[in-house]
Amino acid sequence: MIYTPKTDFRNFHVLMLGRLLGGIATSLLFSVFEAWLIRAHANAKVMDKLSSSFSTAGFGNSVIAILAGLVSNKAASHGKLRPWDASLDTKEGMFFVDGYLNPFDIALLALICCGICATFLWEENYGESGGKENAENSPKWYDGLKRAYKTTIRNRDILLCGLVSSLFEGSMYIFVFMWTPAMQNLAKKEEGLGEDESVELPYGLIFSTFMVCCMTGSSLFSIVAERMKGEALAVVVFAVSSVAMSLVIVSSNSNVTFIAMNIFEICVGMYFPVMGTMKGMIVPEDQRAAIYNLYRIPLNFIVVSSLLAHLTATQGFVAVTIMLVTATFLQLALARRRLNVSSLADMSHLQSLAMNTAKIKL
Question: 128 CB contacts (<8 Å, ≥6 apart)?
Fold first, then answer.
């Protein structure tokens, strides 16, 4: 809530402070709430419902994203950006309102409502403590991260889970940066326009379509999760995502590219409940929030590196495909460990035995 109003200021230092607060808020968003949800399920002894809760949350998130996009689009077109004091010139004003700042101001109201609801509707839970601490040997502020780092390095399942989540989410963020120029380039080629010429695309409609695909993925997960283990399902999700992004690279047709992007968004919708469920089972309760924040370090490195490299749309999707293929193989290794399958040869051997047994019965 403190971060949002700072976008209205025309001062670099205030904006940087806002970004710092925004980074802290993002870390809390992707660690504390998920940790609370998992612990609440454990307290209520309904861990078998965890995957369903993540699926519902993903579906609701997509619905809210669609509504937020529509509201923001309308709000941004309401009035032009101007100084708070109408008597000042644009170059003289320090605090601005209207225009593209309206969605940020509306977001402040939404955050206040969320804070009020969380305060009165949620019960507090503190997870599990890693051990008893006395006043003389109280932990330092960095001890939690230190222990989380050691646990992550020593436990291969936790390490693989973190690498996979960082690679997929990193590819997702790069996709967010690159889909617009990719669609623009294809539209210009099909209309015979030059690189310097502009082309108008229905960005709001495209974004809404992506969010509908995310909703579809969340709903699909709730159906498939009853028939497949989460670890095996994640392998399929990452493999399909890799194929979809490969199509984006090689295709010169805007329709094929758009369909491939929608398939990727369906995979994104399936990813969040799959990964949320896996992390709930793999990451230890007493270090959950700290380890979740450690997972975001390589993710942030991937995103910042891609921005600093000034990648073209094609280069960006090549990087995305490489990350997704890598995530697929890492997830395959994790699935083998979690499902007690040592190699693909063992799996094929079991399948051949099953087929031979069926033939004998016939």
Answer: 285, 286
Asked if 114 contacts 1 with a C-beta cutoff of 8 angstroms, the reply is no
Does pLDDT of 259 surpass 80? yes
pLDDT digits (tens, 9 = 90+) for 310-343: 888 889 999 999 999 999 999 999 999 888 744 4
The average confidence (pLDDT) of the chain is: 79
* Pair 265, 213: CB distance under 8 Å: yes
Going by C-alpha positions, the residue among 261, 324, 279, 268 that lies closest to residue 59 is 268
Q: d(Cα 176, Cα 180) in Å, to the nearest integer?
A: 8
Rg of the chain (C-alpha set): 23
Q: In sequence order, which residues have a C-beta less than 8 Å from that of residue 91 and are 6 or more positions away?
A: none
User: Which pLDDT score is estimated for 233?
Assistant: 92
Which span out of 9-18, 82-91, 293-302, 351-360 was modeled with the highest average pLDDT?
Answer: 293-302
pLDDT at 348 over 70: no
Q: Say which residues have a Cβ less than 8 Å from residue 162's Cβ, sequence separation at least 6.
A: 152, 291, 294, 295, 298
For residue 208, what pLDDT band results from cuts at 50, 70 and 90? confident
